[in-house]
Write a structure and sequence with these properties.
6-stranded mixed sheet; 6 helices; globular; alpha+beta; 336 residues; Deoxyribonuclease I, Chain A; 7-stranded mixed sheet; single chain
Length: 336
């Protein structure tokens, strides 16, 4: 079946379209070497933590290796400090043979880290303002132009689980309001680190620390990834007013991109509009969604992610080893 689908996609590509691979990756704190006062203490340049030119170059090189092996055409990125850091990553990728002509970052709000995007296709971007709170990060809207037609991509990094669900619902409501303002049947992709499980309504319900919203979640209820019976939408059950979370494309045991205290979680998401399941226009290529699980992204035991490393002995410092505490995820789309 997969071979037949591949032949169909190949035929369609030759006669009026192109396949575009779109990914998202939380790179775990890519800070530049310019001090501006908003850095986490371990990323203040040239201190005892050794965040310096050598460690910065190592971080750029390591993250670039992951992106090159993933080989996307468009990639959204979270935890990027600045346009300078994004530009340096863009240059490092070019040195290693992967060229992104276009970039954008949500830079209008002063925060420690921001949402960004790299693309081989032209983009027009704007920011969705969340709140005045220092801890919130603007959502980046990237209108990607492929073949003269727009595809809207929304790069998210919602409040972490250190805060209750009400902090994440703020993001969901701003995003939903923007989606409702788009023309009917607009193609859009919601992606990034939502700090919410794909089935958050079931995982947080008994946690008083998180459930301050009477069971209502941002990712499931506000963004409408579930039906009226609180069941996740499938390809077959998706309604025009709903959205489809691509984690439903893989077996339940494989639905994770992050490990916290030994527990596997799906915090990173690619959620698509109903229009992208319609093969009469631009569409998601079935069964192409995956989390990138290259062996080098794990520790030797295979039970933990080989995140960016800091020494265990004092003085604590960056060791120039490791990658991120998240796995990248990706999906392919056919653009007519």
């Amino acid at each position: 079946m997969r071979n037949l689908w591949f032949l169909l996609v190949l035929t369609l590509t030759l006669f009026g379209g192109t396949t575009v691979k779109i990914a998202t990756y939380n790179v775990e704190n890519l800070f530049d070497l310019h001090y501006n006062g908003t850095e986490y203490k371990e990323y203040i340049p040239n201190t005892i933590w050794k965040w310096n030119k050598k460690t910065y170059r190592a971080k750029l090189k390591n993250i670039s290796k992951v992106i090159i092996d993933l080989n996307p055409d468009i990639i959204s990125l979270t935890e990027i400090e600045s346009d300078l850091a994004l530009q340096d990553l863009q240059k490092e990728l070019s040195r290693q043979g992967l060229y992104f002509r276009f970039r954008s970052i949500a830079s209008k709000k002063q925060t420690s880290v921001r949402n960004a995007i790299l693309s081989k296709y032209p983009i027009r971007s704007k920011e969705l303002y969340i709140s005045r709170s220092r801890g919130t990060r603007n959502i980046l809207e990237a209108k990607v132009i492929i073949g003269g037609k727009p595809l809207y991509i929304y790069v998210n990094h919602w409040k972490s689980k250190s805060g209750p669900e009400s902090k994440r619902i703020i993001y969901a409501k701003v995003l939903k309001q923007r989606l409702d303002s788009l023309p009917k049947n607009t193609d859009y992709i919601l992606m990034g680190d939502f700090n919410a499980h794909y089935e958050e309504l079931k995982t947080f319900i008994k946690k008083r620390k998180h459930n301050d919203t009477k069971g209502i979640t941002g990712i499931n209820h506000i963004l409408k990834t579930i039906d009226s019976n609180n069941e996740l939408f499938t390809r077959q059950s998706l309604k025009p007013e709903g959205n489809y979370n691509l984690w439903m494309e893989v077996p339940e045991k494989d639905r994770w991109s992050h490990i916290y205290k030994g527990k596997k979680e799906a915090l990173d998401h690619i959620i698509i509009s109903p229009s992208l399941l319609n093969t009469n226009k631009n569409y998601y290529i079935l069964d192409s969604f995956e989390s990138f699980k290259a062996p080098y992204l794990f520790t030797k035991s295979g039970k933990k992610l080989y995140r960016w490393q800091r020494s265990r002995s004092r003085p604590l410092h960056h060791t120039k080893k490791g990658y991120s505490d998240h796995l990248p995820i990706s999906a392919n789309f056919f653009i007519k």
